[in-house]
Amino acid sequence: MAQQTEIKFEEGWSFLEKGVTKMIRILEGEPEPPFESNQYMNLYTTAYSMCTQKPDYSAQIYDKYREMIEDYVTQTVLPSLREKHDEYMLRELVKRWDNHKVLVRWFIRFFNYIDRYYVIRRKVQSLREVGLTCFNNLVYREMQSTATEAVIALFHKEREGEQIDRELVKNVLDVYVENGLGTMKKYEEDFESFMLQDTASYYSRKASKWIKGDSCPAYMLKSEECLKRERERVTHYLHSSTEPKLVEKVQNELLVVVAKQLLENESSGCCALLRDKKMDDLSRMYMLYCPIPQSLEHVADLFKQHITTEGYTLMKQADDAANKQLLIELHDKFMVFVTECFENHSLFNKALKEAFEILSNKTVAGISNDLQQFAIIS
């Protein structure tokens, strides 16, 4: 075939089609010996000859290339996916995508001359772009919604303590990324947006349940563990760009929405923890709310409120002469919380300062100037 001076299109394509069929049979796991180097070269040379002779069949081969990929996808790939469900469908999707990339890569070798000359001259899609677009239009568009539901179902299983195949999930999500053809659009629009919405719903339900039955420390421990596990999901199979969005959803549902109810819990909230000197729990509260400025301000306000309340109580029980020493001791006591639990954060230094300004103004006029100066030190 490759040695003829002129190759008729029907004859030439018939020869090329045999090579295409052989490649597909190998991918489908059917009994077929591997390509030998001379077979590959004959296919390449035949395609080359058909594109450089008169008449030039480059346009016809380009169209046939698209057609044979579409036929393979329609007749073989889609039926194999439609008959499977849940995790089995996901495995098939990954397999079919991997096979498709191999198929396109081999076809490009067969028709390399088309890519190097015809594509450039006509300013049309490259063979790779044509091959991947066929999969995208015919397979990805139909299966992505079902795949998203199946992956989210696996998320639920893992969040409830079941073991899942994390490598499978990662490979499925790679299908979304790679079908974006250089952008994250498909991953974000077809998977991430739905996953984040479902995540919010999931943790909203958890928060509603936990806030009713758990103490503040117990609730915070659960929240801390959830955030840790969601970050691990990013490490294992989600795209790194998802982490801040995922963490924000979990923080909002577990910490922001319930902040008032959690932090102001009379028996175990912020003031109760300060009263009982629960340093570890206060440190955890700070670490959980530190990334959430508005909620951290709420914690600082409660800190200020607690200092002021305790200061008033002590001052009522002491005479004016004792107030100076009392305020010094009180300042030292709460400064420990600022440094050891709240990492010397400016909000808590400010809260401490303001609390002692209030307490200082409430002392009797006979308090010395040095006490007044001490009271405003942050």
What does the model show?
- 79% of the residues lie in helices and 0% in strands.
- The protein is built from 17 helices and no strands.
- It has helices at residues 9-27, 37-52, 58-82, 86-110, 112-122, 127-159, 166-178, 185-213, 216-236, 243-256, 259-263, 270-275, 279-289, 293-317, 320-340, 346-362, 369-375.
- Helix 6 runs parallel beside helix 8 (185-213), helix 9 (216-236) packs antiparallel against helix 10 (243-256) and helix 9 crosses helix 13.
- The longest helix is centred in the middle third of the chain and has 33 residues, at 127-159.
- The radius of gyration is 34 Å and the shape is elongated.
- The termini are far apart.
- Mean pLDDT is 92; it is low at 364-378.
Mean pLDDT level: 92
The parts where pLDDT drops under 50 for at least 5 residues are 364-378
Alpha-beta content class: mainly alpha
Spatial extent as radius of gyration: 34 Å
User: Tally the helices: what do you get?
Assistant: 17
What composes the largest sheet?
A: none
Features:
single chain, mainly alpha, disordered C terminus, 378 residues, elongated
Outline of the structure:
With 378 residues, the protein is an all-alpha fold. It is 79% helix and 0% strand.
Provide the fold topology.
Elements: H1 9-27, H2 37-52, H3 58-82, H4 86-110, H5 112-122, H6 127-159, H7 166-178, H8 185-213, H9 216-236, H10 243-256, H11 259-263, H12 270-275, H13 279-289, H14 293-317, H15 320-340, H16 346-362, H17 369-375
